[in-house]
Amino acid sequence: MNIDLHCHSNVSDGALAPAAVARRAARAGVDVWALTDHDQLDGLAEARAAALDEGMRFVDGVEISVTWRGSTVHVVGLRIDPGNEKLAAGLAAVRGGRLERARAMARDLHAAGIDDAYEGALGRAENPAMVSRTHFARFLADIGAVADTRDAFRRFLVPGKPGYVPHQWAVLADAVQWIVAAGGQAVLAHPGRYGLSAGAMDVLLQEFRAAGGAALEVVTGSHSADQFRHFAALAAQHGFAASRGSDFHGPQEGAEFGTLPPLDPRLRPVWRDWEL
Ligand code: AMP
Ligand code: MN
Ligand code: MN
Ligand code: MN
């Protein structure tokens, strides 16, 4: 069974509407599919209807932005109740401030010789309140300032480069608790992306576990084959379940549905107790 539990629609920083993402997942052979937009649940109803139309099983998801010891980390919530008020209130608080941050990012890019980035990014965001670095990356690629969005995240938008503006996201334990309160399982997304030392990762995993975290994302489009093995070992060692998801954002924007290897069968999958 092909299970893909991480991706984005244009409700956050994906390129396609939720129903179009569902169709793409189904065409790629996905059987069980979760939409996990950043800090937003608005795409879930459309995604669920389209998924069922396509004959897939659907999982309500979200990906929460967290600031942990100065680093941004992402926590995916799976099988959350989209009607849960605690989760909705938490996400609303996390979403606030994106427009102001975008203005500061545009000022910084202007100082680096890139004009009109605020309008450029907002014009590419379906929902301006969810404007993200990805929309800036698409703008930079469209005007030819960078070769593609990948290049944009190398030369701009990351710590130490023009257009990066630090932001305070949710507290780790809060994000996990909102997910648990909404009946979901909390998954630490793409842990290999954070550039943490082994010691810091160990502390993060302990804090994540203490907060009620359930799983690590082991197989993700953000990880190399070496990282699949490394985080499989860490999941086993720390007693976490394991998850799998492409982190699809759009055509020609990195990971695609249906291309990742399965989870190592020795791992306990996050879906083990789901009725599939
Ligand atoms: P934001 O929440 O506005 O900080 O934007 C974060 C988003 O930017 C992530 O969810 C990714 O979609 C994208 N992103 C961050 N770093 C990279 C990277 N190095 N390459 C490509 N996309 C990235
Ligand atoms: Mn994203
Ligand atoms: Mn992420
Ligand atoms: Mn993601």
Question: Could you characterize what this model shows?
Answer:
The longest helix has 14 residues, at 98-111. The chain has helices at 18-27, 44-53, 85-95, 98-111, 117-122, 133-142, 149-155, 172-181, 198-211, 225-238, and strands spanning 3-4, 32-35, 57-68, 71-78, 185-188, 215-220, 241-245. The mean pLDDT is 97. The termini are close together. β3 (57-68) and β4 form a beta hairpin. It has 276 residues and is of the alpha/beta class. A seven-stranded mixed β-sheet has the order 1-2-3-4-5-6-7. The protein is globular. Helix content is 38%, strand content 15%. One manganese (II) ion binds next to loops.
Mind telling me the C-alpha Rg? 18 Å
Largest sheet: 7 strands, mixed
Number of helices: 10
Strand order of the largest sheet: 1-2-3-4-5-6-7
Q: Between the first and last Cα atoms, what is the distance in angstroms?
A: 10 Å
Residue stretches low in confidence (pLDDT < 50, at least 5 long) are none
Structural class by SSE content = alpha/beta
Helix-residue proportion? 25-40%
Strand residues, percent: 5-15%
